[in-house]
Amino acid sequence: MKLNNAWKYLVVILGAAFIACGFNLFLVPHHLLSGGVSGLSMLVNYFTPMDLSILYFVFNVPILIAGWFQLGKRFIVLSIFSVVATTWFIAIIPVGTLAIDTLLASVFGGVLVGIGAGISFRAGGSSGGFDILGSIVTRYRDFPVGSVLVAMNGLVILAAGYLQNDWNLALASMISIFVTGKVVDFIHVSHFKVTVYIITNETEAMLARLLEHPRGVTKIKTEGAFSNESKDMLMTVTTRYELQELKRIIKQTDPKAFVNIVETVGVMGSFRRS
User: Fold this and answer.
1) Strand-pair partners of 261
2) Can you tell me the distance from the alpha carbon of 191 to that of 70, in angstroms, rounded to the nearest whole number?
3) 201 secondary structure, DSSP code
4) Hey, which residues does 258 pair with through a beta bridge?
5) Residues 75, 244: contact at Cβ < 8 Å?
6) How far apart are CA 157 and CA 73, in angstroms?
7) Coil, helix or strand for 174?
8) pTM for the complete prediction?
């Protein structure tokens, strides 16, 4: 378990490095935006002498506090670690122009930021900012995280075009944000559903843990064909993003439980338990 946690933190550090490289080597030299809190930080940085790394950290603090109450401590601890690591990488990686063409810079900058945010999600955290707001939204509405981020970032683009008085840069920033969202969805795939079947002898304890989460659970009576022993099978549909937390709960509650995880093509009716 400790090795697994250490691996998650290493992945988050790698994701932070990708994000900072996307900022300082592609987006910032061309005065492009990455969107969300990052974009707000860049926009303020372009018009004031304030340091980008400090702005990025300060703007993330209130969102991390909101996420602490909405998404749970385990998720936010990794997100805080990601924000701190990204802040540090932004501060130490020198700003330099790798791509002279603005369009190429927007595309490759978006790819790097998307890879960084996506692998942070896969590790169980996020890169902070609108990623956290996107995760909060997807807990209550069944939308892909990347699409949610693109929608929220539209306001940032409008502000950029107006304040910079250069709609070419605003449109190039929109391309970067779009690419970032698609890369996040490709890596993270949180909106893909899975159905989990759990056969356990610890039914009540397992239900108590599972019902703490916003997904419904169905209890089915089963009987072993070989042993003729009666057991309970719990069935729930969840997202791949939430699957890691579900596995952790199962292992802690009943390490001997038999678990079958299958991909779900679609869900009709209420996906979220009210």
Assistant:
1) 196
2) 18
3) S
4) 199
5) no
6) 31
7) helix
8) 0.69
